[in-house]
Amino acid sequence: MKKSLTLSAALLAASAFVAPAMAEHHGDKEAVHEQLESPLDPILASDIRKDDMARDKYRHPKDTLVFFDIRPDMKVGEYAPGGGWYSRILGPLLAEKGQYVGLFFNPDNLPFSDEAKERTRAGAAKFPEDVAKWTGISADKFPTYTMDKVPAEAKGTMDRILIIRMMHNMLRWNMADSEIAAMRDLLKDDGMIGIVQHRAKADASYALSDGNKGYLREADVIKFMEVHGFELVNSSEVNANDKDTADYENGVWTLPPAFAKKDVDKEKYEAIGESDRMTLLFKKRP
């Protein structure tokens, strides 16, 4: 088994990334991806991820970030970062030469109580300290905004925004239009959005693919993004799982890690693993 590296070792590897060489090969995806491997590998193996690694076989973080062409000198926003699974990768990766930004729901658009909306604002406010605690990197390295409080100077500055398994919530809560519009404003002219999303079957009924079961049809996601000013650059099957039938009464939460049915048929769902997921990269259109 590969020995875990400390965070300091991970940061040292990240800082060793050679920016001029990256710029020289900007149009050569294969060369850029090879360069990404150097800073990513020690971060993925670091001790700060010891509780996260069990899910790597389902989430494929290295291949996913390589596909999204994430580089250490970029400004990258993660939408609805939650418990910090990707924060513990992106925070160290971007801390020296780039910037990792937490992006949270506009609470006013959430179909929840005022108390729940305030919890969203409070969670966003404490997120930089959370990332600092997880990574050992100063909190001031990690700006965080709710989507209704984005400062004017942040607009047009981001290279990438990642939406990881959250499109279904935006759609079922009827807030996707405004949230994607706000994200588009944050991106540079050549900025991109990377989406990982639980995938319904191509011929799934509306009831199985409207987001309330956690699943969306890939064609619907692509069309939605096109309507909102993006073009599909590429798609990947890196997060595919053909064992997932995507038709469970309890939705995607039937599968690990949620196990909505508790111990009922747990071995069956463990054998399936986590959901089948589309992995899509979109570029902002002029």
UniProtKB/TrEMBL annotation:
Signal peptide: 1-23
Superkingdom as given in the UniProt entry: Bacteria
Molecular function terms, GO-annotated: methyltransferase activity
Keyword set, alphabetical order: Methyltransferase, Signal, Transferase
Record keyword Protein transport present: no
Gene Ontology BP annotations: methylation
Protein name as annotated: Methyltransferase
Naturally occurring in which organism (per UniProt): Sphingorhabdus lutea
